[in-house]
Design brief:
six-stranded antiparallel β-sheet; Jelly Rolls; flat; 2 domains; mainly beta; 3 helices
Length: 434
């Protein structure tokens, strides 16, 4: 079983980062989002992942239906277990992840778990079932986790795919090879065990009176900084502590079906080396071709770059590429070996008020007989600036801090469908209604 993980980060000055929202796997590659899950605490459910990931599992206890992405507290609020913490003083009616905080403010009494005064101390299970068509038999399957918090253990059809030592940290993304356990033509079961933060931290004194002091950034002890997580979830300025610290599956989950060769981790860089002269741009492209089969794959790689939102000239580059069985081949293309990667008079991307937000689209295609892997996405050439994260998505709140429960309303994304790659927000962003 192969696990590929990569860290979300911000690239500065002329770079491309990608996600399933921006770079769509096309051709004979398909990607289905798994949304419908059931949620329950391991304090209530004692069965193992092997049992919970069985399609015939029949629970004797009630599971809360949730739509992923969804943190644990978000799911419990949606199921009326806890009140909406945005309203009034409701946040003081929900136990915190810190035992000492609960004891100080007598929040243990609000735990919905009868024998656990702290409902966030033990892991939670997310469970889902999904069908895979018989026509997909023999293909390659990957489970894509865009974001979990804080650790996860993944089971599919009774087999453990990854444990909590392999999946940890809020900002890592994971690609799990599940080809050997997927049953094409049948129903399949997925069980994900989400563990809480290693160090939940201590919230600052709550604002129990009007015009109280701001919250200490990261709490008075700063212990939450020992985790790779959202530090503001323990409290930050005007933002109160998120009681479960946003534990859960907070980003989408996908089942990706493809041929035996996949294109992974593309990165394109543009270099304007003669600034302030912008008449020449040089491109560099790095990505990996992963062969999951037991045979050598001999195919043709085709790269096409074309204008996305302006009139201009497209160009293509083709190369024959062989990949050894069960191996990963890294492809590095530069202006030194690809003359077309030197672009004369490029169209630059400019922020609002300074010029047009020009975008280029790149298509990466690897074809071997009747098997095609194709990835595409937009990139920009610009003089200076930042490109945030893996997709252009506003997190809401003030000063770019997220909403407490990571729940986004449709009104926060108004005007977001003009361009899927950065004119405003990504039109393929998964927006949860509330």
């Amino acid at each position: 079983m192969k696990i590929t993980h990569f860290i979300c980060c911000t690239f500065i000055l002329f770079s491309l980062s990608y996600s399933s929202a921006l770079l769509a796997q096309e051709g004979k590659v398909k990607q289905v989002q798994l949304r419908e899950f059931d949620l329950q605490s391991s304090s209530i459910v004692s069965q193992s992942g092997e049992i919970l990931s069985n399609t015939h599992y029949n629970s004797k206890v009630y599971w809360f239906p949730v739509k992923v992405p969804c943190t644990v507290l978000t799911g419990l609020v949606a199921n009326k277990v806890y009140p909406d913490p945005y309203i009034g003083m409701n946040n003081m009616l929900i136990p915190d992840a810190s035992d000492s905080f609960n004891h100080q403010y007598k929040l243990e009494q609000y735990s919905y778990l009868p024998n656990d005064p702290n409902p966030w101390k033990k892991p939670y299970w997310y469970r889902s079932t999904f069908d895979v068509p018989q026509s997909d038999k023999g293909k390659h399957f990957q489970l894509i986790f865009k974001g979990i918090n804080y650790r996860a253990e993944v089971w599919v059809n009774g087999k453990r795919i990854a444990d909590s030592s392999e999946m940890s940290g809020m900002f890592a993304q994971y690609s799990l090879d599940v080809s050997k356990v997927i049953n094409a033509g049948k129903n399949n079961a997925l069980a994900v065990k989400i563990y809480p933060l290693d160090f939940p931290g201590l919230p600052a004194t709550p604002q129990l009176k009007a015009l109280g002091d701001f919250f200490a950034n990261g709490g008075p002890t700063g212990d939450i900084g020992k985790n790779v997580t959202m530090l503001c979830s323990v409290g930050w300025d005007w933002m109160p502590a998120v009681r479960d610290r946003n534990m859960g599956i907070w980003q989408p989950v996908y089942l990706r079906t493809s041929g035996q060769v996949t294109i992974q981790n593309p990165q394109i860089k543009t270099d304007l080396s003669n600034l302030p002269d912008t008449n020449v741009a040089k491109l560099s492209l790095n990505f990996s071709l992963n062969n999951f089969s037991n045979a050598v794959q001999n195919g043709k790689l085709k790269i096409t770059i074309s204008p996305e939102n302006f009139k201009g000239i497209s160009f293509s580059v083709e190369q024959n590429v062989s990949i050894n069985a069960n191996s990963l081949s890294k492809i590095n293309l530069t202006p030194e070996n690809i003359k077309q990667f030197i672009i004369q008079k490029p169209y630059l991307w400019w922020p609002n008020g300074y010029g047009n937000p020009n975008l280029y689209r790149i298509h990466l295609q690897y074809e071997n007989g009747n098997q095609v892997s194709l990835i595409s996405g937009c990139f920009i050439k610009r003089k200076r600036g930042f490109f945030r994260g893996f997709k252009s998505q506003k997190l809401g709140g003030k000063n770019n801090f997220p909403q407490c429960l990571l729940v986004f309303t449709r009104s926060q994304f108004q005007g977001s469908k003009r361009n899927e790659c950065g004119e405003s927000e990504c039109k393929n962003s998964k927006i949860r209604k509330r």
